[in-house]
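Handout, page 2. Input:
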Amino acid sequence: MNLPEPVIVVDHLTRRFGDFVAVNAITFEVQPGEIIGYLGPNGSGKTTTFRMLLGLLTPSEGNASVLGYDVYRQAEQVRARVGYMSQKFAIYDDLTVWENLQFYGGVYGITDKARIEETAALVGLADQRTVLTRDLSVGWRQRLALGIALVHNPRLLFLDEPTSGVDPTARRAFWDLIYGLAETGVTILVTTHYMDEAEYCHRVAMMRDGNLLALDTPLALKDLFIPGKVWELYAEPLLNGLHALADLPGVIRSSLSGDHLRVIAESRLSENELKNALEQANVVLTSIQLGEPTLEDVFLNLARN
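Output:
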């Protein structure tokens, strides 16, 4: 059986700005229909990677192809076939929702009103067509920005922090749209700094200081990079408990998590040993239970190595 060709192939892609290495020799592939989450703090190289893959920024070294086109030599062919929603998406406030979609459709040579209608319906804006963009909430503006990126029916989408600044309900609704697109075969690369959002992705890439630390499914990343167990401990005083557990042999990382302590420890470390460490530090333990590893745990473990 012939396997499908990768949608994106990246080979030792590097970008320097003077002496600063923004992206350092990253290598990966993306398959058709995947949702790839691109995680990392500001300045980790996520947006720079996107800009190189879109042909907007010339690589310093390495190679990459998108939809079979070389991102350096065939940048125009790449941009004509992908959708891009940037962090600072350009929407004209003095135009209506329909007029914005129509304008950007024209940029891609789309004059078919049925296609504009279809796009508006796809992102849930069919009933907002005559509304001036300036009157839309942030969540609805982001839906419009997604519609603009989709109007020419691309099979590959680059979404750069698409849910930044919206409330949790709007974020969830936006991700429902992303899932729906992936089910139709659209491949999606999405940058985010929300670790919980990355759980929705088929695979997750983790970036730090221009380096690709890991790329795998959320479950595989947790299995690979979270050795031992996660414990949730409710104790008082919290800071005394934090210091006591941090010094305990077998504890990999201890941290404050809201109103309790979160500990990642080697499997050999028992519940009683955790209790005894707190007792010896005169910390009152009210509850201890096993927790679930998160992608934030994975990233923090990777980042400290």
